[in-house]
Amino acid sequence: ADTAFVARARSHNATWRDWLCERLRRIGLAVDESFGNFVLARFAGAQAANAADDFLKSRGLIVRRMGAYHLPEALRITIGQEDELRELVNALEAHLGQA
Fold first, then answer.
1. Counting beta carbons within 10 angstroms of the beta carbon of residue 90, is it exposed (0 to 12), middle (13 to 18) or buried (19 or more)?
2. Among residues 46, 50, 92, which one has the least CA distance to residue 71?
3. Is the Cβ–Cβ distance between 24 and 35 less than 8 Å?
4. Measured between alpha carbons, how far is residue 71 from residues 17, 49, 66, 68 in Å?
5. pLDDT per residue as tens digits for the range 38-52
6. Is 37 exposed, middle or buried, given 0-12, 13-18 or 19+ CB atoms closer than 10 A?
7. Which positions ≥6 away from 27 have C-beta within 8 Å?
8. pLDDT of res. 1
9. Does the N-terminal or the C-terminal CB of the chain have fewer CB atoms within 10 Å?
10. pTM for this one?
11. C-beta atoms surrounding 38 within 10 Å
12. What was the pLDDT predicted at 99?
């Protein structure tokens, strides 16, 4: 019933989802079109996705592997707060040798 909260959440998700997709694509990842509160980033195979997940976890960043959904090359990244998303992108840039 809190329509103001829902509107703020939708606006936040749309803004930061678009930002995240653009940044992930800029560092060379494929990103599926999304309309929800997460994006699906695709790596060069399951081994690359798992290595990225392991690297992110080592920095305290949690994403979801998608192997159970028959997408072993993908990681699901939830749209969080601005500082969290910036940290995640910076970590992926470091992992992929672009920092």
1. middle
2. 46
3. no
4. 20, 10, 5, 7
5. 999 999 999 999 999
6. middle
7. 89, 92, 93, 96, 98
8. 87
9. N
10. 0.91
11. 17
12. 61
